[in-house]
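Hi again,

Forgot to attach this to my earlier email, sorry! This is the prediction with LLP bound. I've pasted everything inline since the attachment limit keeps bouncing my files.
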Amino acid sequence: MEWFTFQSSANKAPSANRELFAEQIPVQQLAEKFGTPLYVYSRQALETSYNAYYQALADRDHLICYAVKANSNLAVLNVLARLGAGFDIVSIGELERVLAAGGNPEKVVFSGVAKQRHEIRRALEVGVHCFNIESEQELERIQEEAQAMDKIARVSLRVNPDVDAQTHPYISTGLKDNKFGIDINHAPVVYARAEALSHIEVVGVDCHIGSQLTTTGPFLDALERLLLLMDQLKAQGIQLKHLDIGGGLGVQYQDEVVPSPSDYLVSVKQRLAEKGYGDLTLVVEPGRSIAAQAGIMLTRVELIKPTEQKNFAIVDGAMNDLLRPSIYSAWHTIVNTVEHSDVESLSYDVVGPVCESGDFLGKERALAIKEGDLLAIYSSGAYGFVMSSNYNTRCRAAEVMVDGSEAYVIRRRETVEEQFASESLLP
Ligand code: LLP
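Structure tokens for the complex follow:
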């Protein structure tokens, strides 16, 4: 979290030693100005994590398609588009975001298990790089739409290599019993069909086995299976232009030791070279490893409630703002943004005001806090705001991007009126 650091306190409060900064701005200032809960992103962090992929791939043909679902704020997409990023999208909404943010449609890969006809048409109209096909039914549907529009649809088959990603079951996608992809053993038949279709051009092969992987083993196992398939396709006379190895690289939320993009990609590149696929364009679809550490969520302690069993720190952020702890029991580090010298550290369950016992941001956390303190929930840049909801008619948080000593509102806080503006009463 090098872009979010504790530094000597700027406001020199007598009991505060150091306080948290986002790049060069004390986060207290951001919270005072923009309110809480507040998502704060660091532009430099985003650029640094994108560049780690770029540097790892600069020596070969490649396409880095940032997975829009991880954080789809227009400003985030625009920062990446300016660096030349491509995008992995899963809906027409995400495509429109990419276009609105200045992204290049020719660098877009369209993933997702059931692309709707209107989505396919729009993607063909703007000319996406390719469709990642997840079933034979979808292949036929894309052929029909492309034919009707007199366009050629470039496709890549997302194959399911039946590899255990060893991650949370909800975010594991490469096993046979998952809904994703085409069984790798059946893929040659589907490739043959795709080759025979009039408005389909086969360009690649794709797989994505899961998210938050903390070792390279499952990625490399999947790669071996893809290589076998690629050999088989070559023998069938099918020429691929690219290999898309998906996203999935994990980040350190707690004490995980995770490979860097370069650790991981060095092994992939080496294996491709050994097998004679050095010239193939390598496509990656990273989401979390680009955005997670580039964001924190700030939330204010409303009340401290000691009970016989435990201490609760009730904060103004909740499961509707950051869902990951509730649904995946995910750990996010929580810190007080000021270091008090006169407050005892106790164990707290940090919970929100939503009416569910599952509404927590962290359990049994050692914190030295007082009412009114500002807490930071780390690693919230990916799958944070994007998974937020209006549950309990709570307004969605504001988002701010810090760039050096400047802070920009990139999404203002929602209002209650906006929430029900699209609803209506019966006559
Ligand atoms: N490509 C495809 C086809 C995907 O389905 C995903 C993520 C990615 C790329 C990006 O994966 P990443 O690099 O971010 O691991 N909400 C969950 C994560 C769901 C990931 C879904 N697919 C969470 O909060 O952990």
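The chain has a mean pLDDT of 95. Residues 67, 70, 88, 111, 171, 208, 211-212, 246-249, 285-289, 324, 328, 383 surround LLP (CB under 6 Å).

That should be everything now.

G.
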